[in-house]
Amino acid sequence: MGGQAENNLDFEESRIAQEKLVEGIQFPKVLFPAPFQSFSSASQVGEAITRHKTWLDSLLHSSGALLLRGFPIHSPVDFNHVVEAFGYEELPYVGGAAPRTNVTGRVFTANESPPDQKIPFHHEMAQVPEYPAKLFFYCEVEPATGGETPIVLSHLVYQKMAYQFPDFVRKLEEHGLLYIRVLGEGDDPSSPIGRGWHSTFLTKDKDEAEKRAARLGMKLEWLEDGGVKSIMGPIPAVKFDESRGRKIWFNSMVAAYTGWEDARNVPEKAVTFGDGTPLPKDVIHECLRILEDESVAFPWQKGDVLLLDNLAVLHSRRSFEPPRRILASLCK
Q1: C-alpha to C-alpha distance for 135 and 317, rounded to whole angstroms
Q2: 3-state DSSP helix/strand/coil percent for the chain, to nearest 5?
Q3: Domain range for residue 18?
Q4: pTM score of the predicted model
Q5: pLDDT per residue over 57-83, tens digit each?
Q6: Mind listing the pLDDT tens digit for each residue in 162-186?
Q7: Are residues 114 and 141 in the same domain?
């Protein structure tokens, strides 16, 4: 058991078997209700979050990931209450690739792609300039088997990639990445990147879609079947995390190269260096190995809330046996 914050009678820092100690810090940081604290509702949890907001923010900053477990968060409405209690401003889901459905308030389904498909590691919306700073996940229905959401610290990935592939990383830092994706009009629920352009840009008007794409720095090429080819970038693949003073591996390179596949898209063509030259396949797959080796994956339990710092942490999704229902909320 870890120590508690001064005068904190609400939360207990605890441990789970799957956590890692990274540079002496628990990853993810896990909080349970404190002994003798009886939370009877999500509103009480929200009040406790508000009371200890500064402390919770400091835990998130040091660890990058915060798991709340064992609290009475029984429904999407409860989850929405917890999200709002943290006080982060909502980020509209514009430009993302995953099909998602609004459930209530600020709560959406997570990626709705079929359960047999894995979703590779990525920072949420790293392929567009306006990405969330914080990302919440909530387990409404725990998976029958599998379905974990592995997480990995981005600065560790950068360090290992820069050590093993210094020339590749230098070129990546110099040129950034281009992301290329073909979108249909409507959503394709069979695809992990099946969000159509109507919901991607929140409009059915092509002129308005072009304006919204341009604000993201994205070019659109319209296709005869009503779909569109989107070209995003060049966009940086490595950023400097000013709040922590370190470089981070902030991109969707592996996710695009290994996972952006459906009837319209070939993953090897979905991402290139910013100058248009192809990425080396062997380096991409070695990066995938590093991501897996450095990651933490814990079994979801009903009521879990996972808060990620999107700058510090990449996440993915393992395949699963239904039922499973994980919800999400994005914050500026």
Answers
A1: 14
A2: 25, 30, 45
A3: 11-148+298-331
A4: 0.91
A5: 999 999 999 999 999 999 999 999 999
A6: 999 999 999 999 999 999 999 999 9
A7: yes
